[in-house]
């Protein structure tokens, strides 16, 4: 069963628009400057925007596994290894260990070793296993949680 990733929350939309406008202005200024050194800075900025967009995940529940997939990762979490699933609608202080925080979403490691693929901070679903904690944001979080619980009962 495929679950659509949640649309971006207001903060993420604003941050994405600001980043893209800023990068566009800088890229335009570099390209029109006539300098020869601009190739690499422009490539790096375009690469950052494209890479962030490619991190938006697809979320699937099939064959007894939760699959979180984007252009860079294909995470498979067996439903039987899930200890707890909960909806988190409140926002709190989180620190980014390694990843992106704002451009198209929040992707990477946060709060130490938590793995985030969140596009909407108000629709976060926290999935705890023995080894890792994952946070994702399906468009319909309660329906997603209900499906996980139903699959756990059948195992």
TrEMBL record:
UniProt entry keywords in alphabetical sequence: Membrane, Transmembrane, Transmembrane helix
UniProt-listed Pfam families: bPH_5 (PF10882)
Reply yes or no: does the keyword Transmembrane apply.
yes
- Residues annotated as domain Bacterial Pleckstrin homology: 60-150
InterPro entries listed in its UniProt record = Bacterial_PH-related
Span-the-membrane segments of this chain are 12-31, 37-56
Does Transmembrane appear among the keywords? yes
What protein is this chain from?
Bacterial Pleckstrin homology domain-containing protein
Q: Which organism is it from?
A: Chryseobacterium taklimakanense
What taxonomic classification does the UniProt entry list for its organism? Bacteria, Pseudomonadati, Bacteroidota, Flavobacteriia, Flavobacteriales
């Amino acid at each position: 069963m495929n679950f659509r990733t949640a649309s971006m929350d207001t903060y993420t939309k604003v941050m994405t628009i600001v980043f893209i406008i800023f990068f566009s202005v800088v890229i335009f200024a570099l390209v029109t400057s006539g300098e020869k050194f601009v190739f690499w800075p422009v490539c790096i900025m375009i690469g950052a925007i494209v890479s962030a967009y490619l991190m938006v995940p697809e979320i699937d529940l099939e064959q007894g596994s939760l699959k979180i997939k984007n252009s860079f990762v294909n995470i498979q979490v067996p439903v039987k290894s899930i200890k707890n699933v909960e909806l988190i609608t409140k926002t709190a202080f989180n620190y980014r260990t390694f990843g992106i925080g704002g451009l198209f979403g929040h992707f990477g490691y946060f709060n130490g070793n938590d793995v985030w693929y969140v596009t909407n901070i108000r629709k976060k679903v926290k999935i705890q296993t023995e080894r890792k904690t994952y946070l994702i944001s399906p468009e319909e979080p309660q329906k997603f949680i209900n499906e996980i619980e139903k699959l756990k009962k059948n195992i």
